[in-house]
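Q: Predict the bound structure with zinc ion.
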Amino acid sequence: MAFGDILGQERALRVLRKALASNRLAHAYLFYGPPGVGKKYTAMQFVKALYCTTSHTDACDTCTACRKVAAGHHPDTMCILAEDTSIKIEQVRALQRHLSYKPYENQRTTVIIDGGELLTSPAANALLKTLEEPPANALLLLLTGNKDALPLTITSRCQSVPFRPLAPADLRTLLERQGIPAETAAIAAPLLGGRLAPVSMADFSHLLSIRQSAYQILQDVIQSQGTASFLQARKFAGKRDQCTDLFQWLTLFCRDLTMLKVTPNLPLYNQDLRVELTTLAQHVALERLLEAFDMLQQLWRYLGMNLNSQLLFEQLLVQLPRLLAPSHAATPAPAAGKYERRSNA
Ligand SMILES: [Zn+2]
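A: Predicted complex:
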């Protein structure tokens, strides 16, 4: 069933299921939470469940009503999206006309507004009038990734339905449903920051190739004191985005090695390399890992501040073996002022 396909949003589903089961719906709901966590998908399932002719509490996905909503052809529902980065008063007037008509096929007329934070001031004022005096049988679903950007006069007139960032396990399942191979999904899921952003297989291949470079660098440095992989990775230094990805992966690997030292039973970012990382962790002391983690985070921050990526890479080349190679005694790190600010690297 359709609600059953929604992952990680139990709190939101509780509110919606309860409303459907009791047939006591508010005139307006505010779906709020970060982008990419399923607000639009859930709104569609809610509308389907409302119009479904075989179930009152969920969508069957097979009846004519469910199929019409899914195809965007149901005459009683409409969806409003931003046009040229904003939702304009003309669009709100169109939704007001839609809500003023008697429903054709159901007892309710619905409107989904996707991107409530993009309402212009005149559009928000017009919408407020609808919320103050909602037409009988009207249902408005206002979706926003930024609740604070909406006037309180609007949000206070909607029943709030909170959406949360997605857990890596849920993201992994959702990626697999999109056809991403299980192994790739497992590696990528923890890196998506709790959101299912649109990503292609090319993005994932790139992600995995940088991860491989980062792993090779750490393995070389920790096990053989070598820097061959490091020198190979030098090609990333002139490309800020790739350099950022490399620093991020090195940071995640250091975090995983630290976790293996401190709480070895917890899941790792690089869970598929657990055996190899456990071996690596045995070759390096915890305090060195913590120092390396701090150093990487600092370099990553500097990269974000537009400091010269070539120089930051050189620093990495010096600092990582200093901290993690077995026979190197840790020497004081250079001062932060050493890194030059440059806009073209
Ligand atoms: Zn149905």
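A: Residues 329-340 have pLDDT under 50 and may be disordered.
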